[in-house]
């Protein structure tokens, strides 16, 4: 391996820059050249690829977002588009590619791997929904952002004796909602793992009111329901003022925490190690505090993320 490429893809996540820096600096220290691909698979298809040096990744470790840019590019499902992408990599003499992104980005890396082009996937998403890792890069930073927002909501809910519904990102994974609800002391947690049963939720809210709760916070994962309609339903049924807040893309920005910077740096350097050891078609994770790698095809097709039933039980006890 003499030259590797690196790209960030899908929704950005705090720590992606630190991961790119990890790849670049580790590769250069091993005498391997690094090429940055702009705007994910879209830039790869359009041959927007540039050689990076040490200075290319100066002053980025502390920055949110991704300086390489990112994009959603569903066209990459088309084999001809991927073939063009591989040709572009070959024009630059790039032997392997490091892809930093979520499960959609892993799918692209898996497809390239199946076409014989070696890729290493690094989990970069705030959703924490990637198999084969306990933590994705950006997740814990986003968790702090969500907790900060919930703390603020608590102030105003309490002052006005209102019920607040807070919608948290995570796509089809409830981790960000569950953890932020525990850390933020939310009364009710609705995630894809628990499902939403409006009548049950209402019964619990009424029980809380009966027990003397003056205000309450309901944390719910995005894409489950229209939270404004849910707020109206609860307000109509309980007679308590209810407001919904969609945190949205605020959750994706901001300076990465120390944990995410360190995780991203370790994973970036580890990806280079794997490539130098001759591995391809792998995805990197951290499990029980150790860096690990799995077959990327296996991770996508067969591996499931464990549901944190222990923490759901804890949440139940604490409310
Ligand atoms: O995958 C990260 C994520 O932020 C999800 O939580 C969310 O559903 C999605 O991206 C939003 O994507 P976009 O920024 O493309 O609207």
UniProtKB/TrEMBL annotation:
GO BP, one annotated term: canonical glycolysis
Protein residues bound to substrate: 125-127, 162, 169-171, 222, 243, 249-252
Subcellular location(s) of the protein: Cytoplasm
Known cofactor(s): Mg(2+)
Pathway the protein acts in: Carbohydrate degradation; glycolysis; D-glyceraldehyde 3-phosphate and glycerone phosphate from D-glucose: step 3/4
Binding site for ATP: 11, 72-73, 102-105
GO molecular function: 6-phosphofructokinase activity; AMP binding; ATP binding; fructose-6-phosphate binding; identical protein binding; metal ion binding; monosaccharide binding
Enzyme class: transferase
Catalytic activity, EC: 2.7.1.11
Keywords (A to Z) from UniProt: Allosteric enzyme, ATP-binding, Cytoplasm, Glycolysis, Kinase, Magnesium, Metal-binding, Nucleotide-binding, Transferase
UniProt-annotated binding residues for ADP: 21-25, 154, 185-187, 211, 213-215
Family: Belongs to the phosphofructokinase type A (PFKA) family. ATP-dependent PFK group I subfamily. Prokaryotic clade 'B1' sub-subfamily.
Function description: Catalyzes the phosphorylation of D-fructose 6-phosphate to fructose 1,6-bisphosphate by ATP, the first committing step of glycolysis.
PANTHER family named among the record's database cross-references: ATP-DEPENDENT 6-PHOSPHOFRUCTOKINASE, PHOSPHOFRUCTOKINASE
Protein name in the entry: ATP-dependent 6-phosphofructokinase
Organism: Photobacterium aquae
């Amino acid at each position: 391996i003499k030259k590797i490429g690196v790209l960030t893809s899908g929704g950005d996540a705090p720590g992606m820059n630190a991961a790119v820096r990890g790849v670049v600096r580790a590769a250069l220290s091993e005498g391997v050249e690094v090429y940055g691909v702009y705007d994910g698979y879209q830039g790869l298809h359009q041959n927007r690829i540039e050689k990076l040096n040490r200075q290319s990744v100066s002053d980025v470790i502390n920055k949110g977002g991704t300086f390489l840019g990112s994009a959603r590019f569903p066209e990459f499902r088309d084999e001809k588009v991927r073939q063009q992408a591989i040709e572009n990599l070959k024009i630059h003499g790039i032997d392997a590619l490091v892809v930093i992104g979520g499960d959609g980005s892993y799918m692209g890396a898996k497809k390239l791997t199946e076409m014989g082009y070696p890729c290493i996937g690094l989990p970069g998403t705030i959703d924490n929904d990637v198999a084969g890792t306990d933590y994705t890069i950006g997740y814990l930073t986003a968790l702090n952002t969500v907790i900060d927002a919930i703390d603020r909501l608590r102030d105003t809910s309490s002052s006005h004796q209102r019920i607040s519904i807070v919608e948290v990102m995570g796509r089809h994974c409830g981790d960000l909602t569950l953890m932020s609800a525990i850390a933020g002391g939310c009364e009710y947690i609705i995630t894809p793992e628990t499902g939403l049963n409006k009548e049950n939720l209402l019964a619990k809210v009424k029980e809380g009111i009966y027990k003397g709760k003056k205000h309450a916070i309901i944390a719910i994962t995005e894409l489950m329901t229209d939270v404004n309609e849910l707020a109206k339903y609860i307000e109509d049924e309980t007679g308590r003022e209810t407001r919904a807040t969609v945190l949205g893309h605020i959750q994706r920005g901001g300076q990465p925490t120390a944990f995410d910077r360190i995780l991203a740096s370790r994973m970036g350097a580890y990806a280079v190690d794997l490539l130098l050891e001759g591995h391809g078609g792998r995805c990197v994770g951290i499990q029980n505090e150790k860096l690990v790698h799995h077959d990327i095809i296996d991770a996508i097709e067969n591996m499931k993320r464990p549901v944190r039933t222990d923490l759901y039980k804890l949440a139940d006890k604490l409310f």
